[in-house]
Amino acid sequence: MNDQVLDQAGKVREGEELDATIVTNFIKNVVPDAQGTARIKQFPGGASNLTYAVSFDNKEYILRRPPFGKKAKSAHDMGREFRVMQKLKPVFPYVPEMVAFCQDESVLGCDFYVMERLIGIIPRADMPKGVNLTPEQGRELCLNFWDRLIELHKVDYQAAGLQDLGKGEGYVVRQIEGWSKRFRDAKTPDVPDYESTMQWLHANMPEQVGVCVIHNDYRLDNVVLDPNDPTKLIGVLDWEMATLGDPLMDFGNTLAYWIEATDPPSMQFQRRQPSHIPGMMTRNEIIQYYCDKMNLSADNFLFYQVYGVFRLGVILQQIYYRFYHGQTKDQRFASFGMMVKLLEEQCRELLKGKI
Question: Is the predicted pLDDT of residue 75 greater than 90, yes or no?
Fold first, then answer.
């Protein structure tokens, strides 16, 4: 496989630099046979926690840290993220191997952790040039992607020692109330108020269908594909929002990112993963597939679809709020206000039965 298709880190963004000497010394204290001095690059993305590639002459690692600047510590709990992945690894092999956690803020000015780097393909908005899947391969990738979420939802969280990961029960109510409050707190004058959507969600909350480990940000651009067979997943990344909750709520979150090839331009504008390539299943096909595998009813799935789209809108609005008020100058976030508007329209179209 051509190295050009592998996920590559790039230049570190201005204001987000790390001290290479400090990083070198920290990692060598944990991994004495690491050779040379750390070479640090940064991965694209990172609207929340920041991700760096740390390369030595003989080893490669990933370093994750919170964003720079003032933030609520509870929103970027690196220790929790580290412990979740450490406990999940034995029962869900797609989690990277954890190397070390540092809570001494005198080192980098924050908590951070280091883990193994999985070398592979991360499918961002489009598959990398040179990775051309047939429709049959596209379907195989699609099935493998959803099968890994199903596998996660079937993990025995108590046997894995993850019973303290979250409250579990009462998840549906907490999410609707919590995300509604977060949106109202982060609203800016140039976006819709989402009030009709929030009122509908409050009035139509279903009973919780179960408790399981949920990823809470499972997307195609958060997985690593085998460079020798891009239909297979070798890793699942970004566990910062993992908790115990309702599997259908997690499934609805992931489905909100699933833009089909035939979706209208307003939805194509939002696409950040290659869910449109030939062979990928439609949202309706995925709903039936997931529910069959999980032995759950696919009836009345509208609530979970609307919730997933609404929650995505809130996440983008929280980031856009920072940009709107000058708390970040990252131009990647300039278009988020427009995306929040489009997602509100999508909620209304879903409720009208037009999507």
Answer: no
pLDDT tens per residue across span 166-207: 999 999 999 999 999 999 999 999 999 999 999 999 999 999
In order of their start, the domains of the chain are 3-116 (3.30.200.20), 135-351 (3.90.1200.10)
pLDDT digits (tens, 9 = 90+) for 77-94: 899 999 999 999 999 999
pLDDT of residue 45: 66
pLDDT for 44 equals 78
User: So what's the pLDDT on residue 298?
Assistant: 83
- HEC sequence for the chain: CCHHHCCCCECCCCCCCCCHHHHHHHHHHHCCCCCCCCEEEECCCCCCCEEEEEECCCCEEEEEECCCCCCCHHHHCHHHHHHHHHHHCCCCCCCCCEEEEECCHHHHCCCEEEEECCCCECCCCCCCCCCCCCHHHHHHHHHHHHHHHHHHHCCCCCCCCCCCCCCCCCHHHHHHHHHHHHHHHHCCCCCCCCHHHHHHHHHCCCCCCCCEEECCCCCHHHEEEECCEEEEEEEECCCCCCEEECHHHHHHHHHCCCCCCCCCHHHHCCCCCCCCCCCCCCHHHHHHHHHHHHCCCCCCCHHHHHHHHHHHHHHHHHHHHHHHCCCCCCHHHCCHHHHHHHHHHHHHHHHCCCC
Largest CA distance in the chain: 61
CA angle (173, 154, 99) in 5-degree steps: 95
Predicted TM-score (pTM) of this structure: 0.91
- Residues composing the chain: 355
